[in-house]
Amino acid sequence: MCAERGFTLIELVATLVLLAVAAIAITGLVAQISGRSASPVLQTQALYLAEGYLEEALLRAYADPDGVDEGCAAPRDAWDDIGDYACLAAAAPPSDATGAALPGLARYRVAMRVDPPAVVGGATTRRVEVRVTHLDGDIDLRLAGLRADY
Fold first, then answer.
1. Sign of the C-alpha dihedral, residues 60, 99, 71, 88?
2. Around 23, how many Cα atoms within 13 Å sit in the side-chain half-sphere?
């Protein structure tokens, strides 16, 4: 006599349950990974913003070259020394040097701090710190540099 081939109802139900559990686990994993996938992009953008602001400030003169304090009311492209960047103490959306908003970056906030002169390694320097945060993420990036008086 020939043995019958096929699945029993119990085997079929057990297989379906195992497949459902595997699908739920995979779906949860994919959701968890995709939920965090934007974080590296946000961190990279924050780093680029901080580097841009820091480079802009460090390329300015150490001391005011014309003896005129431009003040915070002056546009950023008129700032001529690193001390002027202390005007960015309050976190604000990023902008270019003319004050125009940077498209697509409105959820970021940029603040800067310029420390008083200090002697480091025999040179008079000022420390400039840029802080970039993001309204939606856990991003609080700080980047600092020293500008020497030479």
1. negative
2. 6
107 belongs to a structural domain: yes
What six digits make up the tokens of 24? 């739920």
Domain membership of residue 122 (yes or no) is yes
Q: Is residue 22 included in any domain, yes or no? A: no
- Name the nearest CA neighbour of 102 among 50, 146, 49: 49
d(CA 115, CA 137): 28
**pTM for this prediction:** 0.73
**43-78 confidence digits (pLDDT tens):** 999 999 999 999 999 999 998 888 888 778 888 888
139 within domain boundaries = yes
Q: Which domain holds residue 70?
A: 40-148
pLDDT in the model for residue 37: 62
For residue 93, CA distances in Å to 14, 60, 76, 121 come to: 56, 22, 14, 35
Phi, psi of 16 (to 5 degrees): -65, -40
Domains held by the chain: number = 1
Q: What residues does 134 pair with on adjacent strands?
A: 108
- Provide the residue type at 12 as one letter: L
